[in-house]
Amino acid sequence: MSTMKLRDKVVFITDADSRSGRALFRLFAEQGAHFILNSMSGGAHIKEELKRARTLGLNVLVTATDLCSSSRLQAMLGQAAPQLGRVDVLIHNNDLMKPTSIEYGEEDLFLDLLHTNAKTAFICTKVVGQQMADAGSGAIIYVSSIHAQKPTGSSFAYSATKGAVSMLAKEAALVLGRSGITVNTIELGPIEGDDERFASELSTLYEDYAYKVPNAVLGSYDDLAQLALFLSSDEARYMNGADIRLDGGFLQHYMDFKMKRPPQLGDQGG
């Protein structure tokens, strides 16, 4: 019988309402964690997951804290402490994507993405990282994107925010690593629906994108959760400052390389 990797650990997940947040919540609950969940729906979008976690006897605090405010985050964690204790694992899961171009993009839209994806990462790292440093242990995981390194062709602002988080993670790994904290980034690659999410008039990256994964099988948020679980556990104690690309080999594809296509489509280059 396998042991629970996170029994009685407190896991703080941002944007718990998203598909990635729900997958993380489900898997980590199976591993015995307790939770602080930032849910802007107040838990309405995660009712089934909440019901299951509480059936398992887990403590879950649902909050809708403004993560761009260090004072509000500190206040929320202070209120959570008597019930849950300190945070052992922070998973920064904010992933707002809006199409915008450098030529015609709105400044307010750029700032919206910057605040939601990058500023919240800084505030969470600052506030939760201090709590972890005081305890001498912890794990911080940023759910990022392959577009921290490769342009989308549809939203320069999204790529810029993910690139910012990538460097934040490396800086934090140096500083917080001195206090026994690991800081790592997961660069998630294509999953179902990303061809529409990153639709572009400039780039053909997401045309036939499923077949640009060498095995022609897209990943899922469950794959993301499994990797995050490993990074949260003691098994990953020597991983710090890493960008882990979770894309099935998608970014290794060359445009003149033959793709693995279903027989009815033929084996064509592209």
Give me the secondary-structure topology.
Blueprint: E1 10-13, H1 19-30, E2 34-38, H2 47-55, E3 60-63, H3 70-84, E4 89-92, H4 107-135, E5 138-145, H5 156-176, E6 181-188, H6 194-197, H7 221-232, E7 243-246
Parallel strand pairs: 1-2, 1-4, 2-3, 4-5, 5-6, 6-7
Keywords: Oxidoreductase
Organism: Paenibacillus algorifonticola
Family: Belongs to the short-chain dehydrogenases/reductases (SDR) family.
Description:
- With 270 residues, the protein is α/β, with parallel strands linked by helices.
- It is 38% helix and 14% strand.
- The protein has 7 helices and 7 strands.
- It has helices spanning 19-30, 47-55, 70-84, 107-135, 156-176, 194-197, 221-232, and strands spanning 10-13, 34-38, 60-63, 89-92, 138-145, 181-188, 243-246.
- It has a 7-stranded parallel sheet, with helices on both faces.
- Helix 1 crosses helix 7 and helix 4 (107-135) packs parallel to helix 5 (156-176).
- The mean pLDDT is 94.
- It comes from Paenibacillus algorifonticola.
- Pfam families: adh_short_C2 (PF13561).
Please bin the fraction of helical residues. 25-40%
CATH topology: Rossmann fold
Tally of individual helices: 7
The chain-level mean pLDDT equals: 94
Query: Would you identify the CATH H-level superfamily?
Result: NAD(P)-binding Rossmann-like Domain
Low-confidence stretches: none
Strand-residue proportion: 5-15%
